[in-house]
# Entry
Amino acid sequence: MKTKQLSITHKILIVFFILVALSTLSFFHLLNKTYKVSLINQGRSLAQEIIIFRKWAASFGGVWTKDKYTEGIGYLMSLDAPYGELKAYKSDEVLKRVGETHFFLHNPALATRELSQLSNIEYGWSFRVVSDRYMAPEDKPDTWETKAIKTIEKKGVTEYWGWDGKTFRYAKAIYVKQSCLKCHGPENQIPEEILKALKAKYGDNYKRAINYKVGDLRGIISVSILPPSIISTALSLVDIVNIGAFIIAFLVFWLFAKYEIIIPIEKLTKAAHDISLGKLDIDLGVRGLKEEEVKDEITKLAIAIDRLRASVQIAIERLRKKK
# Structure
C-alpha cells in the first residue's frame, strides 16, 4: 500500500506503534544486559564469599566439627578427647565436663562441599570447587567447567561465565596461596600426618593435588544459578503505574497529534478546496499574524493560504472592475 493512500491519522498511528515497538526492543535489550550483569554479580559475590571462607578455614588449619560429620563427604582426620571440658574465653573455669568427645577435621575443600550441599537444599543454588587435577570423583569438572578452566588458563583471566542451557554458570579462579602449600605443596614439605591422611582418604589420587607452587591455578569455584526467565522478570516489573503511564503517554501523544496536526491540516485542506471553488469568505483564524513572528509550520502554512485567498480575491475584484 502506498503511503499516499493512507490518511495522516493512520500514518501517525503507524509511526506511534513503530516507536512503541522500538522502545520495547530497546527496553528488553537493556533489561537483558542488566539481567546478565545481575547474574554475574550474584555469582561473583557468592564465589568471593567462598574464597574468603576457604582462606579463613585454611588459616586455622581447617574446620573441626564435634561428634558429627556428613556421610559421603567424610573428613580428613579425627581427634578423640576422652576428658572433654568446656571453658569460657580467657577463663580456666570448667563450665561443664562433656566426657568423651570426637572431633572431625574438614579441610577447606571438604568444608566447601558441605556448604554447597546446604546452599543447594536451602536456596537452590549450587557451587563446588573443581580442578583438572582432582582427587575425589566429586571434584571432577563437567564439560562447561573444563572449558572454563581452559579459558582461564589460556587467557590469564580470573573469571568466566555463560549459559549452560537454562542454567547460568559462573567460574572464579582459585590460585595457590602460601597457606595452601600445607596440603598442596611439594610432597617433602607437607606435614607427615596430613600426607598420611590424604593417602588414606584419596589413595594414589592424592598425587594429583600436590607439588603446586604459589600462583598456580588450583581449580575454580563453579557457581550454578537457575534464575527466572527474562520474560517473567520483565513481567514482574510491569505494574499499574507502568500501564497507567503508557496509557497517559498515548493519550497525550494522540491529543497533541489530533489538535496540533490532524485537525489543523484538515481545516487547511478544506480551506484550499473552498478557495479552488471560489469561496473566498473563509476565516483561517490567522488574520493579523505575521509569518516572521510565527514558529509553528502549520500556522505558517495557514498564513500562506490566507495570503493566497486574499490575492485571489483581489485579482477577482480587479477583473470585475475592468468589465
Observations:
- The two ends are 50 Å apart (CA to CA).
- The CA atoms of residues 81 and 101 lie 5 Å apart.
- The beta strands are 63-66, 77-87, 94-106, 126-130, 159-164, 167-175, 217-225.
- Helices lie at 8-59, 108-123, 143-155, 181-184, 192-202, 230-237, 240-276, 297-322.
